[in-house]
Amino acid sequence: MVIRYLGSKAFLSRCLDGLLPASTETLVSPFFGSGKAEYHLLRTRPSLRVEARDLFRTLVRLHQCLQTGELQEALRSSQGRAYSKAELRELWAEFKSAADQEPSCADAARLLVLLHNSFNGQLGKVQPHAPMGERFFHRLDAATAAGQRLTIRAGDGLEQLRHYAREDQTPDQTPPPETVAYVDPPYYGHGDFRRYYHKTPDDVRAFHAELAAVLARLRIPWILSLNDVPEVRALYVDHDCLVRSVGPRELLFLGPSRFWSS
Description:
The protein is an alpha/beta fold and 262 residues long. The protein has two domains: 1-55 and 155-262, Rossmann fold (3-Layer(aba) Sandwich), CATH 3.40.50; 57-149, Orthogonal Bundle (Adenine-specific Methyltransferase, domain 2). It contains eleven helices and seven strands. The chain has helices at 13-19, 36-44, 57-68, 70-75, 85-97, 105-116, 134-146, 157-163, 204-216, 230-235, 257-261, and strands at residues 26-29, 49-54, 150-154, 179-183, 222-227, 242-245, 250-255. It has a seven-stranded mixed beta sheet. Helix 1 crosses helix 2 and helix 5 (85-97) runs antiparallel to helix 6 (105-116). 34% of the residues are buried.
């Protein structure tokens, strides 16, 4: 996928591909974001389906318009175009002015241009990518093909997970063992982290405590990716899960341990 988005787990794509059993049919992704890892799995696993949620409505609309090919059409005027900082600031102002409205494909295209040329909307934080050329659009088309097995809706990821933690499910509601959750929530952040990360909740501690409580009751296998800080390790010290370090600053929690140990 081609979205430059803070929190993207593109570097975990192959790791997740190696972890997920070949029998996995449905991947539950409650904090979808850019979906880079999920799109990779959709490309490499032709029978996999992804059920996703995200609170960022315009980002959800972006994925939905990508599925239909409407995103590419809305981006045609940006193909090969190098934006000046003044033009990007104008785009950012237009994007913010429409924040309370139901997002359109034009809004989704505007968001992708901004992400392509900024650090999560913070202009000047990184060098802009090269203009969107043919290669960029070919990658979008590949994501469109893979995304036909993606169902994504705007909504609360915790609420989606709670559905799989319910103990009063009837037999027809009980997910099959081929269902796995990949949980990629906002990092446990510090300082001014929220300035750069759209999805960071107001109360980070309460959010992550609630997430840990939901995962402890989850009735399907799950993979959680989070930053390696003492607060995160403390939250999961008593959970029935395996812990793996992925690089110097990333942890994977795999629960329940018996599923991942077999």
